[in-house]
């Protein structure tokens, strides 16, 4: 199963305007629990003496998960528990703007609420470290040593968790290793007092590697200029405690901490996330009127195509101002063209394939089913090429795209698809391939290895392809969606870094209600 990424930490500031005739207003913040279908209080401010335009001093710290929809309710009340007004939104909508503004629903004398979000960024610092060692023990009979080191942090489920392993330096007692870089989270879980350990080993090609020594430290100690730590071999120390000094010395030759741009830096500066959908209409889906069909429309439940569109679309709608989605079909024969087409708009508009709103996307999908003769083969190159053309019309850094391809079987144009996927790695786009049905999807392995190398020898410059199947998640669309979206923030950051694009504020704020 996919590892759950740590949440981003955000801090909310709340103020209201135009609250006429109320004393000492306060604000309750409630989180929606999808399991109980209820809003539960997570924070309550103290009453504010400013009656008309209160600004509450308390800052609300919340965990923000990009890959999940987090519904929030802000309830403004007076000290008599009278509800002045309520504002429902999502945490995604709030963080995507510098200041979210909404109308308070309820009393006729209600006002407006303003919510600003600030990311707590210490977790996004990167630490660059360069180590060297002096006078490590000679471990080889006919040489010196071939030392390397392993960096650990104190774990939860186990005593130590490995976080980095260096290269081996051949035949030396005074190795100087290459610098390495870790996020502050990876290094010490954002806790500078967390115990860390450095182990030094001697590489042996013909037998088990030999332990040289270790030292236990923390980040506070690491960051002291020109600091050195003794490598201790417990067995040698125990054997001769009076004469044994150490098995070498580790020196922190260089340590540098730098603040990096975060996903929310770009989102709050105005970068939008736009979706493009592609739906498989090959014959292996079987006729939509059959209950066994992957396209079967059940009045009581969504099929896997519909669930993918709904789950991904409803979360990413918070990050798309216009909520307009190009939607294409492939592998079918539309009645208006009478030939197999590997990239056709499901709204039948070749000039403008855009559909406004996720609900309208679902409606267009259902309406098009009787108009498409299922055919084949499964060709993805045309869809990816068309999507790349869409990305080229966007301002640099202004939009990042997710192409979501839903496919029910093996891909036939592997070589052409690889050419297009390699090209996509240089574009502001992630390619998400969702396997529906029960096929093996063995050909997809060609697309998930990194780097992808096409038939011309060109390599992908970043890992921007995601592939999951419904069956691997037991048909759970929510977990599938979370697993997909958890990778998108890193994809966006890698692209922005690749093109040296700084987060530039594109818009001051947007009203969300």
Automatic annotation (TrEMBL):
<dbReference type="InterPro" id="IPR037768">
    <property type="entry name" value="C2B_Copine"/>
</dbReference>
<keyword id="KW-0472">Membrane</keyword>
<dbReference type="InterPro" id="IPR000008">
    <property type="entry name" value="C2_dom"/>
</dbReference>
<dbReference type="InterPro" id="IPR036465">
    <property type="entry name" value="vWFA_dom_sf"/>
</dbReference>
<dbReference type="InterPro" id="IPR045052">
    <property type="entry name" value="Copine"/>
</dbReference>
<dbReference type="InterPro" id="IPR002035">
    <property type="entry name" value="VWF_A"/>
</dbReference>
<feature type="domain" description="C2">
    <location>
        <begin position="109"/>
        <end position="233"/>
    </location>
</feature>
<dbReference type="InterPro" id="IPR010734">
    <property type="entry name" value="Copine_C"/>
</dbReference>
<keyword id="KW-0539">Nucleus</keyword>
<dbReference type="GO" id="GO:0005886">
    <property type="term" value="C:plasma membrane"/>
</dbReference>
<dbReference type="GO" id="GO:0046872">
    <property type="term" value="F:metal ion binding"/>
</dbReference>
<keyword id="KW-0677">Repeat</keyword>
<dbReference type="GO" id="GO:0005544">
    <property type="term" value="F:calcium-dependent phospholipid binding"/>
</dbReference>
<dbReference type="GO" id="GO:0005737">
    <property type="term" value="C:cytoplasm"/>
</dbReference>
<keyword id="KW-0479">Metal-binding</keyword>
<feature type="domain" description="VWFA">
    <location>
        <begin position="274"/>
        <end position="488"/>
    </location>
</feature>
<comment type="similarity">
    <text>Belongs to the copine family.</text>
</comment>
<dbReference type="GO" id="GO:0071277">
    <property type="term" value="P:cellular response to calcium ion"/>
</dbReference>
<dbReference type="GO" id="GO:0005634">
    <property type="term" value="C:nucleus"/>
</dbReference>
<dbReference type="Pfam" id="PF00168">
    <property type="entry name" value="C2"/>
</dbReference>
<keyword id="KW-0963">Cytoplasm</keyword>
<dbReference type="InterPro" id="IPR035892">
    <property type="entry name" value="C2_domain_sf"/>
</dbReference>
<keyword id="KW-1003">Cell membrane</keyword>
<dbReference type="Pfam" id="PF07002">
    <property type="entry name" value="Copine"/>
</dbReference>
<protein>
    <recommendedName>
        <fullName>C2 domain-containing protein</fullName>
    </recommendedName>
</protein>
<keyword id="KW-0106">Calcium</keyword>
């Amino acid at each position: 199963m996919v590892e759950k990424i740590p949440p981003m930490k955000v801090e909310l500031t709340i103020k209201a305007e135009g609250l006429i005739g109320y004393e000492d207003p306060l604000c309750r913040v409630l989180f929606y629990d999808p399991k109980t279908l209820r809003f539960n209080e997570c924070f309550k401010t103290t009453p504010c003496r400013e009656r008309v335009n209160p600004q509450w001093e308390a800052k609300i710290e919340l965990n923000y998960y990009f890959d999940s929809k987090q519904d929030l309710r802000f309830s403004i009340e007076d000290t008599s528990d009278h509800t002045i007004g309520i504002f429902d939104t999502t945490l995604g909508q709030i963080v995507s703007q510098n200041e979210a503004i909404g109308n308070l629903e309820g009393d006729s004398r209600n006002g407006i609420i303003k919510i600003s979000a600030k990311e707590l960024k210490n977790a996004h610092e990167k630490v660059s470290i360069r180590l060297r060692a002096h006078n490590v023990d000679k471990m080889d009979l006919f040489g010196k040593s071939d030392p390397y080191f392993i960096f650990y942090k104190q774990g939860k489920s186990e005593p130590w968790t490995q976080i980095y392993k260096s290269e081996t330096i051949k035949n030396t007692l005074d190795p100087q290793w290459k610098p390495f870089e870790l996020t502050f989270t990876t290094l010490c879980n954002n806790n500078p007092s967390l115990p860390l350990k450095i182990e030094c080993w001697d590489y042996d090609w013909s037998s088990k590697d030999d332990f040289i020594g270790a030292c236990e430290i923390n980040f506070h100690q690491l960051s002291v200029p020109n600091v050195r730590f003794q490598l201790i071999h417990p067995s040698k120390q125990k054997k001769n405690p009076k004469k044994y000094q150490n098995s070498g010395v580790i020196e922190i030759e260089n340590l540098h901490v730098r603040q990096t741009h975060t996903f929310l830096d770009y989102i709050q500066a105005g970068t939008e996330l736009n979706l493009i959908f592609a739906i498989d209409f090959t014959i292996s889906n079987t006729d939509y009127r059959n209950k066994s069909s992957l396209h079967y429309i059940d009045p009581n439940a969504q099929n896997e195509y519909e669930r993918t569109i709904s789950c991904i679309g409803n979360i990413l709608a918070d990050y798309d101002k216009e909520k307009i989605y190009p939607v294409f079909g492939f592998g079918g024969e539309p009645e208006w063209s009478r030939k197999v087409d590997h990239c056709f708009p499901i709204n039948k508009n070749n000039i403008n394939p855009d559909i406004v709103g996720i609900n309208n996307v679902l409606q267009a999908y259902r309406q098009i089913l009787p108009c498409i003769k299922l055919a084949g083969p499964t060709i993805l190159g045309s869809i990816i090429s068309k999507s790349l053309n869409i990305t080229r019309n966007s301002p640099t850094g202004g939009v990042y795209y997710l192409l979501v391809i839903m496919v029910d079987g093996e891909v036939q144009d592997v070589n052409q698809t690889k050419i297009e996927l390699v090209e996509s790695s240089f574009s502001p786009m992630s390619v998400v391939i969702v396997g529906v049905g029960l096929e093996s999807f063995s050909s997809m392995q060609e697309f998930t290895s990194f780097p992808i190398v096409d038939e011309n020898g060109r390599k992908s410059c970043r890992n921007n392809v995601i592939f999951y199947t419904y069956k691997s998640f037991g048909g759970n669309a929510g977990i599938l969606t979370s697993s997909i979206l958890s990778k998108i923030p890193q994809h966006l950051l890698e692209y922005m870094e690749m093109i040296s694009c700084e987060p530039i504020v594109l818009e001051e704020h947007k009203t969300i209600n």
